[in-house]
Amino acid sequence: MYFFLACEDPLAQACGERLLQHLAPDTLIKPIITGGNGQLKKKLPNFIKLAHHAPILLLTDLDKVICAPALIKDWLVEPNHPEQFYFRVAVRETESWLLADRQGLSAWINAPINKIPLNSELEQDPKKYLLDLVNRYGNRQLKEDLLPSPTNITSKVGLGYNARLTEFVRENWCIESAIEHSDSLARAYKQLQKFKL
Predict the structure, then answer these.
(1) How far apart are alpha carbons 21 and 97 in whole angstroms?
(2) Whether the predicted pLDDT of 82 surpasses 60
(3) How far is Cα 135 from Cα 147, in angstroms, rounded to an integer?
(4) Which of 39, 182, 186, 194 is the most exposed place for a label (fewest CB within 10 A)?
(5) At residue 197, does pLDDT exceed 60?
(6) Burial of 51: CB neighbours in 10 Å, binned 0-12, 13-18, 19+
(7) What's the confidence (pLDDT) of residue 126?
(8) Is 38 helix (H, G, I), strand (E, B) or coil?
């Protein structure tokens, strides 16, 4: 059976895939990456139509919106949508779901676990928090991959940012640990459990 995954970027894709694979290892996942939540919102009617024929998980970041219900209400003009349409919001960014696996991320970065927040969703800028951890505790290669080059004044992340964090998600990220420290991840997990994957 196919399960479509609509998301903003490769990191969100990796998290969505791990979540679905964790719940149903035999499910074939078809990712749709839009390159930002603006495009994701623009294509929302197409995703809802698709959900009449196949299950789809739409995963986006909360970013600066006040709360997930407000974002969902803004995006879903029509309150009724197919049962197979799963709309989940990472509070505030997908990176907060990575921070939520405190033990796994601590070991991966080589940072003291007490430097990883108990509630990753309280961080207003999870990406910056993660990069600060890497800058302070990461090894040379991790810093080169994740941190922006001093000569590149436009990029906030390094060239290997998505590749290395995607690698962490696929090989090290512990969902059971992360749902203990991220309410939005726990809610996504619980909602997807309702579907007979």
Answers:
(1) 16
(2) yes
(3) 7
(4) 194
(5) no
(6) buried
(7) 97
(8) helix
Tokens of 126: 């999870």
Across the range 43-53, mean pLDDT stands at 96
Burial class (CB in 10 A: 0-12, 13-18, 19+), 141: exposed
* Rounded-to-integer distance, Cα 60 and Cα 46, Å: 16
Q: 13: burial class by Cβ within 10 Å (0-12, 13-18, 19+)? A: buried
H/E stretch holding 17: helix 10-23
| 3-class SS string, 145-195 | HHCCCCCCCCCCCCCCHHHHHHHHHHHCCCHHHHCCCCHHHHHHHHHHHHC
pLDDT attached to residue 196: 62
- Candidates 160, 98, 108; CA nearest to 129 is 98
Tens of pLDDT, residues 97-115: 999 999 999 999 999 999 9
What is the mean pLDDT of the segment spanning 13-40? Answer: 95
33-43: average pLDDT: 95
The predicted structure's pLDDT at residue 180: 96
d(CA 143, CA 146): 5
Instruction: Give the DSSP letter string of 88-150.
Output: EEESS-HHHHHHT-HHHHHHHHT--GGGS-SSGGG-S-HHHHHHHHHHHH--HHHHHHHSPPT
